[in-house]
Amino acid sequence: MRTAAPRPPTARREGRKALDLDSPATARSTPERRCLACGRRAPKADLARFVAAPAGNGRALARDDGGRLPGRGLYVCRARACFERAVARRSFRRAARLEDGELAIDPALGAALDDDEQV
Ligand SMILES: [Zn+2]
User: Fold this and answer.
1) Digits of tens for pLDDT over the chain (119 positions)?
2) Which of 41, 70, 73, 105 has the maximum number of C-beta atoms within 10 A of its C-beta?
3) Dihedrals φ, ψ of 4, to 5°?
4) In angstroms, rounded to a whole number, what is the distance separating the alpha carbons of residues 61 and 119?
5) Beta carbons of 37 and 83 less than 8 angstroms apart
6) Which pLDDT score is estimated for 114?
7) Distance between CA 80 and CA 84 in Å, rounded?
8) CA 66 – ligand 1 centroid, Å
9) CA 11–ligand 1 middle distance (angstroms)
10) C-alpha 63: how far from its chain's center?
11) How far is the CA of 32 from the centre of ligand 1 (A)?
12) Residues with Cβ–ion distance below 5 A, ligand 1
């Protein structure tokens, strides 16, 4: 008859965010996100982050490279093509869990992404 080894305390999860869906094995590496348009997975820093920021009565897509704005991050490649594809498919609006027409998107946001690629 064997005595069971004492179990380690399972208190490690207390600091984790509820949104963290990564498995524990990969949690320490660079967090990856998926482009809403092409589905490419890339480190967060390689993608452009947007949030659905409050604007007037609704929401407007806002670029948030610093990752400082509150809200759910919406990521696409730093390429106008991916931005425009995400707009055309309403991927931003869906990812932000908004109803049709609730998210205003300034097309100029996409043009700024092309500038990034040339750096
Ligand atoms: Zn993409």
Assistant:
1) 666 666 665 545 545 455 555 555 555 678 999 999 999 999 998 999 999 999 998 999 999 988 899 989 999 999 999 999 999 999 999 999 999 889 999 999 998 787 555 44
2) 105
3) -70, 140
4) 24
5) yes
6) 74
7) 6
8) 19
9) 38
10) 11
11) 13
12) 35, 37-38, 40, 77, 82
Cα separation, 41 vs 102, in Å, equals: 27
pLDDT for 118: 45
Residue 85's pLDDT is 97
In angstroms, what is the span from residue 55 Cα to ligand 1's centroid? 26
Q: Which tokens hold the place of 80?
A: 């106008």
Q: Degrees (nearest 5) of the Cα angle 71, 33, 113? A: 80
Cα–ligand 1 centroid distance for 1 (angstroms): 58
How far away, in angstroms, is 76 Cα from ligand 1 center? Answer: 5
Residue 119: the pLDDT is 42
Under CATH, domain 32-117 is a member of which superfamily?
YlxR-like (3.30.1230.10)
Domain boundaries, the chain: 32-117
Write down the residue that tokens 């806002």 correspond to: 62
